[in-house]
Amino acid sequence: MNVETKEDRRVKKTKRALREGLAELLTEKSIQNITVRELTDKADIHRSTFYANFTDIYDLYSSIENAVIQEVSEVFSENYTVDSKVFFEILFKYISENRQVCRMFLGKNVSPTFYSRLTEMLKEAYLICWRTEYGFTGTAEELEWYVHFYLSGSLAVVGKWADEGFNFSPEELTMVFADVNDNFGEIIKSKFSFQ
User: Fold this and answer.
1) Which string of DSSP letters, residue by residue, matches 88-123?
2) Cα–Cα distance measured from residue 7 to residue 2, given in angstroms and rounded to the nearest whole number
3) What's the confidence (pLDDT) of residue 163?
4) How far apart are CA 119 and CA 121, in angstroms?
5) Nearest in space to 128 (alpha carbons), one of 144, 114, 105, 104
6) CA nearest to 74, candidates 66, 63, 85
7) Which residues 6+ apart lie within 8 Å of 65 measured at CB?
8) Residue range 10-55, pLDDT digits in tens
9) Cβ proximity of 65 and 113 under 8 Å
């Protein structure tokens, strides 16, 4: 194994420990009450290592937020054309594998900036998906209202799942979302004139 690969692994491990440590602390207290020392103790990372990567707790939080937005965006862009059941299996697997961080961002203490960024990204993804899947070529403002309605409900359910400690299995949630998605798709197809 070369030195660069070993360093990359170490950096990834350090960032993962900080990410999970911050997520855990944020379930206990607000970000402004978390100190770097408290976080580095929880993550078992030296303070100098923290400062080699981030300027402060807010910088780390911003980095995590950007990473989660990017990761969720990739889940959508790589999988939106698959069957809805398969798509939701992939999405909920991602959430399940990143429980602490997703709880931090999707639970009751959701950051307004994160929620806004996530909603905007998902809105664009769903507009592309529905236009592709249903052949819609118009720019109907009404379609955006349907997307907003769909996303608000979906994110509320995922937030409830996070707040309740992910006690509903990903498989059960997949079935709920796939059913709703398929039925919602029928509404969209019947409501708009697709070519």
Assistant:
1) HHHHHHHHHHTHHHHHHHHSTT--HHHHHHHHHHHH
2) 9
3) 85
4) 6
5) 144
6) 66
7) 105, 111, 113, 114, 117
8) 888 888 899 889 988 887 888 889 999 999 999 999 999 999 989 9
9) yes
